[in-house]
C-alpha cells in the first residue's frame, strides 16, 4: 500500500483538474454554444457527421476487470485515461489525508501487538484514531456500543446494504428453510414461521450464492436468514440464521448469546461482501453501459448528454482502479475477505448479467423496493422505519423535480421526446450493441425520460454512497460487528465461549491494514465542497450552456439539498436511544457530505 500511495500522490500532483480533457473531441469555442436538440436540417448535417466520427472513435472494449463493456477506440481509451486521472487524484488526496491516521494507528497497534481478548477490545481501534478518515461523522454513534442488539443487526439491512432483504409473499413464496415451531414461537411470542408467512410478516435475506466462490485463507459461511415484524413491538427483528456450510447450523435468538452474536457476525461477513460487489454491478456497470450508448448516439451539443456527462464525472476511472487494487491476486479482496478477488469479479458479473443488479427499469428506486415488498406492500404490516428509503427518497424527489424542469424546458410535448432522433438512437444503441439490460424499449413521454435520468442520478449518488464511499469505515465495515472475513473456521457445533469470540476476528495489525483500505474508499475531503451532492448540477460551464429554467431548477435543488443536509446533520438519538428506529445514527445520505458522482 505504501508504494501505491506514493504512486497515487505523484499522479495527483502531476494532474491538476484544469488539465483534464472533459471532452475528448472538444475545444474551447464549442463550450460557449448553448446545448440544443437536433432539429433544424441545416445544422443537423454537421451534427450527424460529428456523431458518426465520434462513433468510429468511441467503441466498446472488454469490461475492465470483467463485467459489461468498457470504452474502447481512441476516444474511449482517452476518456478512461482522463477519468483515471480524476479518480486517482481524489484517491491520492485521501491517501495523503489518511497517512497521519495510518501512522498513528500502526504505532498504536504494531505487528507485535497482543491480540484483542474481547469483542469490546476492538473499539480501541477507533479510540482517538482515524480522525481524518472518519470526518465528519466518526463511526456512527451507537455502532460500537449497541452492536449486540438484535435491532442493530436487523436495521443494518434497511440502511447500509438495503439490497438483499425481501418480504416473503403469502401463497407465492415457500419457506426457504424450517425451524421448529417451539423455538420460533418462543421468540415471536406465539407465531410459527408458516403463520408469520401467512400474515406477510416474514422477511428473508439470502447469501447462499456465495457458497460457489473461491475461499481465501480466511473463512466465510454463506448465510441465509429470516427476519420478522414483531407482533408486539412492530419492529423488524432477526429470527434465524442458517450457515449453509459445514454442519449447516441454524442459529436463533434463543441460542446462547455468544452463539447468536457469532451467527450475526457470520451473516455480516456475507453481507459486506455482497454490498461491495453488488454495488459495483448495480451502480457502476449499469450507468457505464447507459452512458457509453449515450456517448455513441447523442451529439455533444445534446442537453441530455450534457447532464449524463456531469453525472458520470470520472466514472470510467473506477474499474481500472478496482482491477489494480481489489481484484488482483493478493489484492485487497484476497487479503481481507473470505472469498478471492477473482471470485468477487465473477460474482459482480453474475449479479449484473442475471438482472438482479443489472436490470434498469426493474431497479428504479421505488420499483426495486416495491418488488421486494419493502414499501407499498399489499400484504403484511409496513416497515415501521426504513432509513434508506426515508433518506434516499428526499434526494430522489428533488432530483426528479430538477429533471422534470430540465426535460420540460427542452421538450414541449411527449411527442417531442418520442421523436427526438438522437434519443431514439440512444434507446436502440442501449438495447442493441451496448447490451443494457431491461432498458426502456422506447421513450414515449417526458415523464419516462425524467424517470430514466433520475435513475442515473440516483444510482451515482444515494444508491452508491449508502453502500460504499464513507460507509465502510464509518459503519458497514466497523469492527467488531461487521468483519469482512472470519479468522477461524465456521463452527461445526454450537457452544462457542464468549471469551473465544475475539479469536474469530483479525489481529490488531491486520485490522489497521483493513481500516486503511476502508479509508481509501472514504472521501471526507469532499464534504462541504462543490463535489458534494448539493452541487450535483451546480457547475458554471454546464449551466451556462443550459437554459434559464434549468438554471432556476438548479438553484432550487441547491437550496433543497442544503435544507436536507441540516436535517441529517442534526440527527441524534431519541429518548429510547434510537435514530430512525435504529440503535445507531446513520448519516450516509447527507447531501453536503456524499459526493454527486461515483468516483470510487
Ligand atoms: C501472494 O502472496 C503470497 C504470500 O505472501 C506469495 O507467496 C505469492 O507469491 C503472492 N502471489 C502474487 C501473485 O503476488
Ligand atoms: C445506543 O448507544 C448510545 C450511545 O452510543 C446510547 O446513547 C443509546 O441509548 C443506545 N441505544 C439503545 C437502544 O440502547
Automatic annotation (TrEMBL):
InterPro entries: LipOase, LipOase_C, LipOase_C_sf
SUPFAM superfamilies: Lipoxigenase (SSF48484)
BP terms from Gene Ontology: linoleic acid metabolic process; lipid oxidation
GO molecular function annotations of the record: linoleate 11-lipoxygenase activity; metal ion binding
Keywords carried by this UniProt record: Dioxygenase, Metal-binding, Oxidoreductase, Signal
Residue intervals of the Lipoxygenase domain: 31-600
Signal peptide: 1-15
Domain of life: Eukaryota
Region called Disordered, residue ranges: 17-39
Protein name: Manganese lipoxygenase
